[in-house]
Amino acid sequence: MIMKKIQLNTFSIKSLGLNKIMGMTLLMCFVTLSGLTQEKYSTKSGTIFFDASVSRSKPVPEATNNTVSAILKDNGELTVLVFIDGFKFKKGLMQTHFNQKKFMDSETYPKSKFVGKLEGFSVNELSDVKKDYPVSGQITVRGVTKDITTTARVNYLNNKIYVESEFHLEIDDFNITVKKFYAMRVAKTVKVAIVLELKE
User: What is the pLDDT of residue 13?
Assistant: First the structure.
């Protein structure tokens, strides 16, 4: 009788241990699946524009890039990738100078990147009405990474998420050199605007 009780107790302990292991395994599987099923919205044709002009009366150093790649997760995490040689200028000579070693050096640093998050973002709360979200993260330009904060206007329309944002960058922060000849034409503070049209 005593042996039977010991065997039963041993079986119960083993069962509890097995149940604990199974529970942990199921929990890990659930967490893993949750990460795998996270919704993502992306684009490879976003637009970024910058204006580094000092005066509109002189040739304006501004350009547009329509080949921006971006991924937005449903938790607000945002990654944006910009290829430097994708910027197009109205004047070809400006484009040549822009990509040269002393300026953007696009051969050595072919891309710029932003990694950050839209604070308080939720896909379920989106509508066709634009809503502002604080954005914080890090931007890398010419191999230099800096913290950045701004605001994004976001709305949802025709099964797409639209993200718009504007911010300023200081060229001195990214070791960008402007030749003396262009110093009076190129601003130290560059205005940047980005528009993303993302879909699943």
Answer: 45
DSSP states along 36-96:
HT--EEEEEEEEEEEEEES-TTS---EEEEEEEEEEEETTSEEEEEEEGGG-EESSHHHHH
27-65: pLDDT as tens digits: 554 444 444 456 899 999 999 999 998 876 566 679 999
Residue in this structure with the two tokens 């993502």, named with its chain if needed: 40
Measured between alpha carbons, how far is 155 from 153 in angstroms, rounded to an integer?
A: 7
N-term to C-term CA, the chain: 65
Nearest to 86 by CA among 124, 112, 114, 51: 112
In single-letter form, the type of residue at position 72 comes to L
Options 3.40.50.720, 2.40.150.20, 2.40.128.110, 3.40.190.10; which CATH number does 39-198 get? Answer: 2.40.128.110
Determine how many CB atoms are found less than 10 A away from the CB of residue 103: 19
C-alpha closest to that of 65 among 50, 43, 80: 50
> What pTM value is reported for the model?
0.79
Query: How does pLDDT run across 87-119, given as a tens digit for each residue?
Result: 999 888 889 989 999 889 999 999 999 999 999
